[in-house]
Amino acid sequence: MTETAAALSVATTPDAPLPVVRVPMLDRHQQLVAYELLLQADEDGDDAPMHRLLSTLIDGSIAQLTRGNPAFLRLSPGLMLEQADYVLRQPRIGLVVVPGDAGDEALLARLVQLAQRGCALLFDLGAAPPPGPDTPGAQLLRHARYVRLDAAGTAPALLAERCAQLDKRGFKVVAGRVDDRASSHRCIALPFAAMQGGYLLLPEKVDVPVLSANRLSVLRLLRALEEENSGPVELGKIIRDDAILSYKLLGCVNSAYFALPCRIKSVEQAAIFFGLSRMRNWIATLSLSGMSDRPPELLRAALIRAQMCEQLAQGMPQPQREMAFTAGLFSLLDSLMCAPMDFVLQHLPLAPEIRAALLERGGPFAPLLHQVRLWEAGRMPGDGSIPPQQARRVAAAYLKATRWADHVFAFAEKRPPG
Question: What Rg do the C-alpha atoms of the chain give, in angstroms?
């Protein structure tokens, strides 16, 4: 057994974290349509991770991971024949199918049966043309609700033509591999029902950066938080005039997620209980998450990065772990603020180690951010992008970070009663 296969066999033991990542599909208004769940099986085709993923459909873990939203996953042909009834028990879970699935008569019959019983199929065409009439591929396509096209591998004119044709036939067309802003702008102009790809995490190109009043307000708050003399009293003063932020913060720290022994009634008390650095990080998190003019999935991605970086920095001293959180959270500041990173960082007195990670991809936090970026892009251990010995650790960090980010974001969206 190779080193990679050996490491992945450990990662698929029953108590190992699932090497899974959720990839959002967003509509033209940047709102969530569905998630795709990418799961890494080992290089020998072992279905053990997928078996475990299917078992989580029963215990509700997948519903928690997807926040109850529609989600698609790709099963191996063997599992689709034998175990797809698990999917039918979850009406919000659909299957990704490919043209080659139609070449197996038994598999084709099974997929048609699943579609007729209500399972949503996403037919992944990639860069290939739609199958011709009276072919097995056409039969499978007729039973799909969604069709995905490869935006990166298809010429723009051909992509527009195929999208229009499929949309006219009543399919919900998804643009896959939309990995840059130029591609996203082309796809928004077409009748795509959803897009997915790396474009979401990239900043918009601007000739002259201009910060709106809302973004300037957030940056002023972040600057005040980063000032070295901000103790518990100063933190309280910083957000005292922001009733909404105070409400969100106290609601979050007093939630069942943290299971505190007593109720915290003030920001000062929270800073003493949790520590100044952690409280600064959480205030920054909530202030960024409250930017209602940015795509919610972009905000969630920043929170996930922050928590993942802190988890992956566990071997570092405590001050560096807390700086790792900040590096992860601020790594998407250019996308959140719609301005170049160097321009945004002019407004913030950050530690040199954080600045190096954000501007130069150097320093102690750069390797952490590199692993996080690979994972969120679906670059799993099996392709050699992440060292095999890190697979289990990164998988655990991702799952914990996702739960934490979803919890915090739920409080960020709340408003005081009345």
Answer: 23
Distance CA 289, CA 413 (A): 8
What separation in angstroms does the CA of 39 have from each of 74, 230, 376, 395? 8, 43, 12, 11
Tokens of 372: 């996080």
Report the pLDDT value the prediction gives residue 43, as an integer from 0 to 100: 46
Residue 115 lies in a domain: yes
pLDDT of residue 91: 87
Q: What 3-state DSSP class applies to 125?
A: strand
Instruction: Decide: 4 and 382 in contact? Cβ < 8 Å.
Output: yes
Residues 6+ apart with CB under 8 A from 301: 200, 201, 332, 376
Where helices occur in 96-227 by DSSP H, the ranges are 105-116, 136-142, 156-168, 181-188, 213-226
Model pTM? 0.90
Q: What share of the chain is helix, strand, coil (3-state, %, to 5)?
A: 55, 10, 35
- Looking at the structure, tell me whether residues 187 and 224 fall in a common domain: no
Instruction: Please tell me the predicted confidence (pLDDT) of residue 411.
Output: 85
Nearest CA to 201 out of 36, 366, 23 is that of 23
Question: Both tokens of residue 168?
Answer: 């006219």
- Ranges of the chain with pLDDT below 50: 1-13, 42-44
Residue 54 class from Cβ within 10 Å (0-12 exposed, 13-18 middle, 19+ buried)? Answer: buried
* Number of folded domains that form the chain: 2
Looking at the structure, tell me whether residues 90 and 155 fall in a common domain.
yes
Whole-number pLDDT of residue 17: 80
Between CA 80 and CA 108 the distance in angstroms is: 10
The predicted structure's pLDDT at residue 384: 56
Domain membership of residue 94 (yes or no) is yes
